Amino acid sequence: MDPLLIVVILFVLVIGAYIWYKTVQNKREREYQEKLQQLPESERQVYVAQKEGNKNWGCLTAFLVLAVIANSILAIVEFSAASSANGSLVAFGGLLNVLCAVFAGVVLWKRKRWAVYGYITSIVIIILINLGVAGFGAAAPGVLPLLFLFTAVRPVWNQLE
Questions:
Q1: Rounded CA separation 104/117 (Å)
Q2: Which partner from 25, 77, 113, 123 sits 20 to 30 angstroms from 152, CA to CA?
Q3: 28: closest CA among 2, 63, 1, 54?
Q4: Residue range of the domain that includes 122
Q5: In a 10 Å sphere around its CB, with 0-12 CB exposed, 13-18 middle and 19+ buried, how is residue 52 labelled?
Q6: How many domains does the chain have?
Q7: CA separation (Å) from 106 to 64, 96, 147?
């Protein structure tokens, strides 16, 4: 599969996920405002405090959606490229991408702190595999998910179990 095609697909998925995220965010905000108007004054403060506690999860949610999509696509690409000279190593990389999708999509969604460590470990191993198989040029983009993860998790780290 052509690398440019993969980049275009990922770009389209990122834009689509962003549009979806903004649509859901606007809908939730309208529902929140409607419910807030219906509550008596004594219950409004409690409701606003609950909303503030979940305020920073939007960035992490967007990251999780993108991580599941990107890792699934990369797993398919690596499984299809497993017929090369380093086939078993590339297939193992594909398996790790599936593992990353599981960590991001299932476990981290349930707000478990150990999922962050599992995701980081999987990404580091994938970077090392890409470094050994294809060199620095193929391994360098693997740092981006780590940067995105740190950016998304930092505001909510204390809320993870």
A1: 11
A2: 77
A3: 54
A4: 3-159
A5: exposed
A6: 1
A7: 9, 15, 20
